[in-house]
Amino acid sequence: MEFDNELDVPLPVGETWKVLLDIERIATCLPGAELTEVIDDKTYAGKVAVRLGPIALSLVGQATFESIDHAAHSARVRATGKDPKGRGGTDSVIDFHLESTSTGTKVLIHTNVALSGTVAQYGRGSGVIQTFASQLIGQFGQALRAQLAQTQAAAASGGVQTETTEAKPSKVKPISGLSLIIKTLWLWLTRKFRR
Amino acid sequence: MKPAKFVHHTPSTIAQAIALLAELAPQDGRILAGGQSLVPAMALRLAQPAHLIDINGVAGLDRLAVDGNALSIGACVRHAAFQRPPVQGPLGALLATVVRHIAHYPIRTRGTFCGSLANADPASEWCLVAETLDAELVAGSTRGMRHIPARDYFQGVMSTALEADELLAEVRLPLPALGTRTGFYEFNRRAGDFALAMALVLYRVEGGVIVDAHVGVGGVEAHPRRISAAEKALNGRAESAETFAAAADAVADAVLPIEEQPEAAAYKRGLAATVTRRALESAAQNRHENTGAVQ
Q: Which residues 26-55 on chain A approach chain B with CB closer than 8 angstroms?
């Protein structure tokens, strides 16, 4: 299943690019996500906790930068994850592209999600998924903007900016995969319990 | 099907339940009240909590009583407790109307009001009631009791402000002023199904015009929500078909249906407007039933 989301960041494209590639920083802005290991400069291991009503899933997996184009400000991330209790997994590809706007940067996110296992059997999800992705990307954007504002305030008072950092992949990817699973589960539940 | 292995805990006081929850929440310990969502999910092994903290034996949690200017609903109060008005006046009548739309009788004898709020299904009737009436939710943890206004509580599909180690101990529904008209309308294709759309409205009429309108819509967005544009379209106007139509139009414009397909979303918008209009019409008719209490 494929869908698109976008996110506004109040920074120039070059700065936003650096921030989004700082995965250790980005990971803290993702609801339910935890970065467990930096395997190399393109591969990160982590887990994402999803709690949906009666169900608690934790997806353990990794995200890999399949390609990074610094000139075009585009990147492709592949994320795979599995529920340790065998209830399903995901293999998703997320493309990011940055565009300059009058207020900063627009981050365009294209997600292609594949699900497997129990979760996938009922996973039509076309209705609810986009809502969830938007919701989580919205939360991510808020957390990121709050963090940027903090950093800028610190930079303003402290003199020099400590702001941007080096390159890492963006965690937005697990978010989308995560949200997809939530939506699917919810649909699944409502169908199963249809009274 | 049988659930995965779990440990069943039976605390007898709120303090014990909260202490157990604090200890077991990190291991996916869950509160068991009515179990009408949790237990089926466990039977399918979709939910596999390692610990269940059964609060059915906790003293005092089945309390359903007027407390100051609110109806206090404890964590173990079943849906069926609302089949007869639990309190005099517009709130009791409203709750007794709404409860008939919740699933079927056997489910209503086990499922709990607070459990519905903790589960936060987008199509939950009680969630719509809590949101529209500006309920106050009381969450207990080892850090103490926390009061959460309904508008801050719902965060998304089955996603709420409750932390994993918090027990939703009580919900307080404010008693509407005497003379408040209420109307509820739900649409689904079969009796007892989840709502495809539903609306709950409350308002008073003073000096010939509507004041203090509350318009809540559920089953359409990720969680129930008061639609302020519709409330503005009502406040200060006389009750009339035109006023109600304007409020229904405002709802259609304001809602963001979960459905991704344009045609499904358009259908839900239209449905949201229709249930709002019908809820308003039923509120206007209520006035006649309540004439004794009205100005």
A: 51-55
